[in-house]
Amino acid sequence: MAAGARYAGKVVVVTGGARGIGAGIVKAFVDSGAQVVFCDKDELGGRALEKDIPGSVFIPCDVTQEGDLQPPAQWPEETSIHGFRQLLELNLLAIYTLTKLTLPHLRKSRGNIINISSLVGTIGQSQAVSYVATKGAVTAMTKAFALDESQYGVRINCISPGNIWTPLWEELAASTPDPSATIQEGTLAQPLGRMGQPDEVGAAAVFLASEATFCTGLELLVTGGAELGYGRKASPGTPVAIPTLT
Ligand SMILES: NC(=O)c1ccc[n+]([C@@H]2O[C@H](COP(=O)([O-])OP(=O)(O)OC[C@H]3O[C@@H](n4cnc5c(N)ncnc54)[C@H](O)[C@@H]3O)[C@@H](O)[C@H]2O)c1
């Protein structure tokens, strides 16, 4: 099938679509022939992308009442219940609310939902207790919704990206003491030796929406293999016990 026809005649709504992974998803669905409406709280960025991608329609919208970006690396004692709640609003409850609001329509149109979770929701991540907890919940909620909605023919899947080179990644790296070292570490975390690109997440989303018609409750890892194999996992302060040769 021609790339421009894979999702022709369908309407796709993307949240947080002005930049990064969301923008990659907007582009991929426009290329697949869908009509794409995207929202973002960044009105300037959204308008700019709307101009760049003819066929897309931007609507300014904050998917939470008090959304915030994910916090920088935090040890457990540095986290707060307030910060955790804000992240829950953004990463989990916004998805829950949007899903509830769109289900009546999706049941009629036999549509599908793709949530963006994260690899770390399954494998954990240091200094990110709140973020990891919200993403693990997104993956779990995807499966629970998938079970309940399958009777209506609505499929609900999620994508768990690993390291994807986006403005968010760049900003988080810039906030560390040695940004180049942070970026190098992030790059070497993948057996493929690079970070992913937003359009690669977009391609996975188009696949789930258009071709993966027997998949529901699926967590699709788009990670370059970051979760594979052993690696150095003891942090510098950990007492190590190395066996000696006899
Ligand atoms: N980049 C990665 O390596 C990576 C890895 C795993 C998971 N993820 C997840 O992918 C998603 C996108 O990440 P990204 O790296 O593209 O981030 P990004 O910051 O580059 O882009 C996020 C977009 O969402 C918009 N946004 C934020 N809060 C909003 C709100 N309340 N209402 C509407 N729009 C809002 C921002 O304005 C921005 O345009 C996030 O859920 C993130 O946790 C990213």
UniProtKB/TrEMBL annotation:
Full protein name: Hydroxysteroid (17-beta) dehydrogenase 14
Source superkingdom: Eukaryota
Pfam families: adh_short, adh_short_C2
GO cellular component terms, A-Z: cytosol
Family note: Belongs to the short-chain dehydrogenases/reductases (SDR) family.
InterPro entries: NAD(P)-bd_dom_sf, Sc_DH/Rdtase_CS, SDR_fam
Keywords: NAD, Oxidoreductase
Annotated GO biological process: L-fucose catabolic process; steroid catabolic process
NAD listed as a keyword: yes
Gene Ontology molecular-function annotations: D-threo-aldose 1-dehydrogenase activity; estradiol 17-beta-dehydrogenase [NAD(P)+] activity; identical protein binding
Gene3D superfamilies reported for this sequence: NAD(P)-binding Rossmann-like Domain
